[in-house]
Amino acid sequence: MARVVVNVPASAKRGEVIEIRTLAGHVMESGFRRTERGELMPRDIITRFSCSYNGVEVFSADLYPAMAANPLITFTTVATESGTLEFKWTGDNGYAVTESAKISVA
Amino acid sequence: MDRRQRLRGDGVGEDQRRLRFALAVLAFLLLTAAIPLAERRSGYEFMGRETRAMQDDDTTNPALLWVLDGEALFKTNCSGCHADLKGVAARYPKAGVSLEQKINHALKKPFPYESRELLALTAYVGRQSRGMPIEVEWNEANRPFLERGRATFNRRQGQLNLACAQCHDDNWGKQLSGSVIPQAHPTGYPIYRLEWQGMGSVQRRFRNCLIGVRAEPYAYGAPEYVELEMFLMWRARGMKLETPAVRP
Amino acid sequence: MITRRQFVGLGVGVVAAGKAVAQLPANIAELRRAALEGAQQKIAGDAPVRAGRVKIDIPPLIDNGNTVPITVTVESPMTEADHVKAIHILTEKNPQPFVIGAHLGPRSGKARFSTRARIADTGKVIAIAQMSDGSFWSETTSVVVTLSACLEDGLI
Predict the structure, then answer these.
(1) B229: in domain
(2) A41, A84 Cβ separation under 8 angstroms
(3) What whole-number distance in Å separates Cα of residue C119 and Cα of residue C56?
(4) Is the residue at B21 inside a domain?
(5) How far apart are CA C104 and CA C98, in angstroms?
(6) CB of C62 within 8 Å of any CB in chain B?
(7) Which chains does chain A touch, 3 or more C-beta pairs < 8 A?
(8) Which domain, by its residues, includes A69?
(9) Within chain A, which residues score under 50 in pLDDT?
């Protein structure tokens, strides 16, 4: 099952600012909704997202219940060198997903 | 002797003639109330710029998550017989069978309606017809279903006693509860509906409409849904398929 | 002896308690203001938050409050000496004010990111940027949120 999708350009010029798009499949249950019987549905969200570039964290975000389901996070980073971008999502109930993408920088 | 008039003329000739005449007049009126072909607009055009961008950009369309699942399921379940299914989704429903039903007939073990697997498969198969014109024809095989679908579209239902046509033929473009009423062309199903924050079929959407007019919704898989979908796809013939679409 | 005022007050209290699940409290505006101030306090502490340098790109009329695309851009050279450290997005009328807190740095290249938020009701959306020099800048924008017709829950 596709849990996350990342979109990273395959190649870039050194120093170029590239845009990275990430999409995570997650219901992001806010913890504020109630069932028809009035019971509070427990919170179940992704709480943190981070991106590391060859082991160095270049972007991160703290997510709250006001994030829409299937959260999209689009951000930028400078293409410094060829290597691997690692993405990590963590959240409630032990949710932890990682994905990686390679980039070639000339 | 029995003098009660029967709606479905099976006895007295006079009744049958009256009925046919009434139906002819009704059909004429209905045809004139329908949206002229050139004025048809997809629900896409009634959305804001940002929602449209969500649909247009494949990398950020949330439906992508389902399309990717569908691609994997297709490889496992379908690619044994089918290289691809380009153009298929644009021609369904066909002869009273929806795409979901057709897929389930072909599978060894059918997926339940509205399951993640079935939505993923229909999204993937539909995606292969994206950009193609919808081609549901008014032919002999389709006619009985189309006529019933049309009758459903024009029949008042629910506590609010509203027919689909009253909002979607007569009042499209106007506002209902702060939202603009679209013309109800199912050009992008299954859709990622922002309201659901997830993917859903046209049957799920119909159920929302029925609840909207305070009618009891039919169960998933009901022939009424397939016939209505078929009629609406015929009504949208020539319009481009947008699957998987994003809708509010 | 229970006075009529006390009796009426009691009745209202019982009704209110029973419906507490469905209704917002009477002092909701004050609670929201306090929550937003608390959030700002948490982000900026006692430092002043000035209007400017931040731009929020959000549809003024929202198709559906469940999923609202937002892009925030901040003017900044994004150098080691002068960059945006964090961008926070808050809303006025959600049950709690925070949407997302993004952490950037000189390796970001640009101070810009996009996401999709849930916005419960017509009101303000606020973006606060924290700079490397310790200053805080913000922009506030207003959006209109309407309820979709034809839902699954049968709510009015």
Answers:
(1) yes
(2) no
(3) 14
(4) no
(5) 17
(6) yes
(7) B, C
(8) 4-105
(9) none
